[in-house]
Amino acid sequence: MTDPSPETRVLLVEDEASVRNVVARLLTKLGYEVSSAASAEEAIRFFDRGSSFDLVVTDIVMPGLSGIEMAELLKTRYPFLRFLFISGYTSRELGTAPKAPPEPFLPKPFTMQELSEEVRKALGS
To answer: Among candidates 98, 43, 38, 93, which has minimal Cα distance to 72?
Structure first.
């Protein structure tokens, strides 16, 4: 596998500050340029201000807009934007069985290696 290009920009959307800080550090260590948002609404403001990203890594369950609702909204405006969904909830807790979480999905907790693999898959590299 190749290393990420230094221009690869990732927006991390996570409402829990401690988790957001850890995942942002992991993504930075993996070589990505990372911006962080504490909510879906804050993430949308990044785009409204003209920021662009290659990938949005988002928690699914957040106050206000969920990560899924945010992704649906952003996909209408940026159809080529890629997403990686993360959550500490099981698929059963995320929706009624047999509903599965959106893809690609990485359950929390995860290792740096698992994050690296899923980000690369989501980016298509």
So the answer is: 43
- Report the 3 state secondary structure along the chain: CCCCCCCCEEEEECCCHHHHHHHHHHHHHCCCEEEEECCHHHHHHHHHCCCCCCEEEEECCCCCCCHHHHHHHHHHHCCCCEEEEEECCCHHHHCCCCCCCCCCEEECCCCHHHHHHHHHHHHCC
Question: pLDDT tens across 26-51, in order?
Answer: 999 999 999 999 999 999 999 999 99
pLDDT in tens, 77-106: 999 999 999 998 755 555 544 445 678 999
Give first-to-last CA distance, the chain, whole Å: 8
| pTM of this structure | 0.88
95-99-103-105 Cα dihedral, nearest 10 degrees:
50
